[in-house]
Amino acid sequence: MNSTLVAGVPATGAEPPAPARTPTDWRGAKMQGSIRRRYAAERRFRLLGLGAVLLSAGFLVFLLWTMVGNGARGFTQTELRLDVDFPASTLMIDPAALAGPGKDAALAGADIEGATTAAATAAFGTDGERLLSDGAWLTVRDAIAADPTILRRKAQIWVPAATNIDLAAKGDAAPEDEAAYARLDKAGVTKTGLNLTFLKNADSTDPTLVGVWGALKGSLLTMFVTIVLAFPVGVLSALYLEEYAPRNRWTDLIEVSINNLAAVPSIIFGLLGLAVFLNFMDMPRSAPIVGGLTLALMTMPVIVIAGRNAIKSVPPSIRDAALGIGASRVQVVFHHVLPLALPGILTGTIIGMARALGETAPLLMIGMRAFIASPPGGLTEPATVLPVQIFLWSDEVSRGFVEKTSAAIIVLLVFLMLMNGIAIYLRNRFERRW
Amino acid sequence: MSGLALLLLILGLGIVAWGTARAKASRFVPVGGQRAHSRPNYHGWYVALWAAVPALIFLVVWSSVAPGLVMGTVLDTPAAAALPAPGMERSAILAEVRGLADGTVAAAFNPVSNTLAPAYKAASTRYAIIGTLAAVLLAFAGGAWAFTRLTPDFRARTRVERVVMGALLIASLIAILTTLGIVASLLFESLRFFAKVNPLEFLFGLTWSPQTAIRADQVGSSGAFGAVPLFWGTIFIGAIIAMIVAIPLGLMSAIYLTQYAKPTTRKWMKPILEILAGVPTVVYGYFAALTIAPALRTFAVSIGITSASSESALAAGLVMGVMIIPFVSSMADDSIAAVPQSMRDGSLAMGATTSETIRKVLVPAALPGVVGGVLLAVSRAIGETMIVVMAAGLAANLTLNPFASVTTVTTQIVQLLTGDQEFDSAKTLAAFALGLVLFLVTLALNIVALRVVKKYREAYE
């Protein structure tokens, strides 16, 4: 039927005859080859995409694996059993003096360090002192303070080993240290346990004595200042821009500023903090309050942008209903819009805070890279924060710091994951689709 | 009384004022059938604001004025005559006096300090008492005055809401203030730098060696501030190497996850890729310095590049590229999703395979959005600090060799501002000039990128 119809179309004589058209031979070798090529290209392209995803994810896995592999060892510590013969030692402390209020003075006055060295020499040979951590005598002191009666007898005290021995125990040191460790291990005076020092100390020059608590406390104080300042200001400006701001040049200026601030490199905020807070306002260097102020300026735009999106997603019918039953405009926003937008705002805030917690560069600018050997006591005392501590340890030459740096990174990543986990939970639990 | 206790006292007074005023307002009897204009809560807030806000403002002003007053009193005492003339020594002694009085310094180094410390202590106690009394009085006066104004037809709500609106406006002005602060501080310090160093030399000079001489006769420390090697290093790492990594990986990941992957794969892989953007940069820096850089150096030596440095542009650029992948990927994701479905359907209906549709229809249509995303990624990469500080090195080389060590603008800012130096030297001020350049470039990139993205979105709406 069709062929007759096509054949029946009258040809207009004036035009040149159309070139003869042969139907495409789909089953011919040429077309089949072309289709095969196109399908092969399709598969290649698809594999390329899969490869890109897997490569990116693989990099993440490799990064985390390296950090965990290096850092897990930072949480353990090798200890040596030190036999101290207190009655025979040069230590002149009256056990009775340790019971009263003069305890600290009595301990400080005694040469515990010397006694520890002597005990190490007696136990491990002439350079026995080098097998112990520089802080071994602190452990001895704590043992005496905990139980003064040991001063009247021979005592066995587990003290931290020196970095070389610690690394040798973990199978990562020079041959002579490995040999020294093997000798000690054979004598049965070594054990490996959880490194509590790492969780409760601050910075130190000896890798066996360092801890993250000082930096962690600095981070927490800094984050406290940041959230106290950035959250109210961020939420209030988001409310103003979304609910009240008249459309004029000033509002445009505010919006442009906020969008730009969100994209300004973080180090610029550090320069601002240095020029304004330290040099102009003369605030204390290295203090959590200055760090918190600087990070608050950086986090505020993030909160404003997240807050505006959350407020925008509250449907206008809520506002209309509230206005309709006689609420004022302030009541509409604070009684109805804000509570409904709050989960979204909180999610954005936590994400902004997580970014601030991992931030290093601006805090270097305001001097939070000092060597701080004790945890900060307040907002104006010198402090450092976890990322800066990681940066400082990564610069240390001593090999013992490698595992400590990675361990500190694990602590930081755990905190970040917790924060992001809370944000995801909040989003899934409370976010409403209208 | 310490500042915190005083603050809590004022806030406590505010709460008391709130409760009293609220109680008074809730006893208002309707007059002639007409109820009170505002609910008791608003009366409470009105009085509480009057009690707390003026006192707090006074405290802020007082805390900036009081140290000067205390110091003035101390300098008026006869013992102060022994102080040396204004200068370093005098301020050192006065700082010590302050420390002695606070108890933060245990023993004085300077004998004059010991004589002045009691006077300082007395003066600071006196002014602290004056400040406390004045703040408390102000709180009571404000609260009492506001309390007397409460009547059933007093418009408390209107007034409280006016304060709330004021607070909202002030909060949103902080963004402008921050921007102004950044521009002013960068500009001010940069101008001081350009008074010492010719701006043309800074922008076009080829040698960077910021050590200025302490003595005029020192050798090799004349100080050269030609920033071109820094700009090149920044572009080389952030805009070239990092983008060579990030653009293909980010774009292909976005294409695979939006066009090919099953919904469950997409649901899991997208957040995993986004973790890459959430890892702190100091972790990337440490990873680059500890693992990637030594491996690259071994590799370079094994292929015959003996000059390979252990801090290389390639190590920093590769790791930075990985960090940028999620940015490129999510921007590409958005732009591809914005291409109308009809274009995709049309191409598929003509018999094109999925990959042909993507390569010849979707990506060209989404290109402006992708380019905008890449510009944003570049702006983020050149402002990134920790990776380059830890992995790229400090040598200001003008080189095309990716295994050589180069330095960047951000590295040098950190380098110039950490360590001991006086604040007025050209070396320190140079950091602000570099910061200004960085700020302007990232600003321009962001504005252009946002404009491109916006134009493109409009085209399909």
Automatic annotation (TrEMBL), chain A:
* UniProt entry tagged with the keyword Hydrolase: no
Q: Where does the record say this protein resides?
A: Cell inner membrane; Cell membrane
Gene Ontology CC terms: plasma membrane
Mention one GO biological process in which this protein takes part, according to its record: phosphate ion transmembrane transport
> What PROSITE patterns would the database entry show?
ABC_TM1
Q: Which residues form the ABC transmembrane type-1 domain?
A: 216-423
Q: Which UniProt keywords apply?
A: Cell membrane, Membrane, Transmembrane, Transmembrane helix, Transport
Please give the InterPro entries that the UniProt record associates with this protein. DUF3333 (IPR024573), MetI-like (IPR000515), MetI-like_sf (IPR035906), Phosphate_PstA (IPR005672)
Q: Where is the signal peptide?
A: none
The topology of this chain with respect to the membrane is: Multi-pass membrane protein
User: Which segments carry the region annotation Disordered?
Assistant: 1-25
GO MF annotation: an example: phosphate transmembrane transporter activity
Which regions span the lipid bilayer? 45-65, 220-241, 261-281, 287-311, 332-354, 407-426
Task: Please give the NCBIfam families that the UniProt record associates with this protein.
Answer: 3a0107s02c
Q: Which family does it belong to?
A: Belongs to the binding-protein-dependent transport system permease family. CysTW subfamily.
What's the protein here called? Phosphate transport system permease protein PstA
Kindly list the organism's lineage: Bacteria, Pseudomonadati, Pseudomonadota, Alphaproteobacteria, Sphingomonadales
Automatic annotation (TrEMBL), chain B:
Looking at the UniProt entry, the stretches that span the membrane are: 47-70, 127-147, 167-188, 230-255, 275-300, 312-332, 361-379, 429-453
Domain of life (superkingdom): Bacteria
Keyword tags:
Cell inner membrane, Cell membrane, Membrane, Phosphate transport, Transmembrane, Transmembrane helix, Transport
One GO cellular-component annotation of the UniProt record comes to: plasma membrane
Q: Which residues form the ABC transmembrane type-1 domain?
A: 232-449
Q: One biological-process term from Gene Ontology?
A: phosphate ion transport
Alphabetical list of InterPro entries matching this protein: MetI-like, MetI-like_sf, Phosphate_PstC, PstC_N
Alphabetized Gene3D superfamilies for the sequence: MetI-like
Q: Which NCBIfam families match?
A: phosphate_pstC
The family database entries (PANTHER family) matched by this protein are listed as: PHOSPHATE TRANSPORT SYSTEM PERMEASE (PTHR42727:SF1), PHOSPHATE TRANSPORT SYSTEM PERMEASE PROTEIN (PTHR42727)
Function, as annotated, reads:
Part of the binding-protein-dependent transport system for phosphate; probably responsible for the translocation of the substrate across the membrane.
Name of this protein: Phosphate transport system permease protein
Protein's organism: Alterirhizorhabdus solaris
Ranked from the top, the taxonomy reads: Bacteria, Pseudomonadati, Pseudomonadota, Alphaproteobacteria, Sphingomonadales
